[in-house]
Amino acid sequence: MLKPEFETLPLNSSSNLTVILTIWKRNNLLEQLDSLFSQTVKPSVIWVIQCENHVNISQIFKYYPEISYLKSSVDLKYFGRFSFAQYVKTKYVWIVDDDVIPGKKWIEKCLHTSSRGDYIISCAGRRIPNNCYFLGTRNEIEKHYFGDITPSFTFHFCKENTLVDFGCNGWFFQAEWIKTFWQVPPLTLDMSEDMHLSAVCKLKLDVKTIVLSQNNEENTGNLKIAYGRDEFASWTKRGFYEKREEVLHYLIDNLGWKPILWNNNYK
Description:
This protein is α/β, with parallel strands linked by helices. It has helices at 29-37, 60-63, 80-84, 106-114, 138-141, 177-181, 193-205, 240-254, and strands at 17-23, 45-51, 68-72, 92-96, 119-122, 124-126, 145-146, 162-164, 166-168, 170-174, 208-211.
């Protein structure tokens, strides 16, 4: 029988944070919950959203009665969790991919950073090369990847706080910004929620996206890089980068979003 690794202590209302987890075909929920309940600052609310019924997680809720369970019989893909985020009542929300296991000081680190400025915070992120729309040539642009391209580490590592064009793997931000997120219709609901969040919040609110410094297993945003390189990883699917290219044309050419490295003469 599944059992939590850590004792389940009460959630922390003073953190003013709702964490949204999603379940589809990966089976990392117990490990994610263990990591959340072992945080130096625990969240106030935890929601688990399950799309379809590929993984049996029913036993887990016996050990975590504090969390809320939302079930969808259809696959809401990547934007569904951002729809649910409109109902968050806390000041902050952290939407987390299903392959992310945070170090125990990650929430504390995000809250501290948020108190010092308006940021979308991620544990990994990308800068888009100048005049580049196609991000699939990884061997050429990996120097613009931050956090999750760390050959020497099994966890996300970033030498220093780094501004990026968009974050990956999870997004910690002020919940009220989700209203702005939905003010601009996405090109597609199938993918690229990460780009849409950063682009729209930068255009409408001048909110920047940042990958925080991460140099050890306590303050990393993700302890398990390998979890995001399995058979379910979206970036390995045919047509992924071609669709992302279409989204970038929409955000940059149609909406006027300007990536960090782009010059002033693009159209």
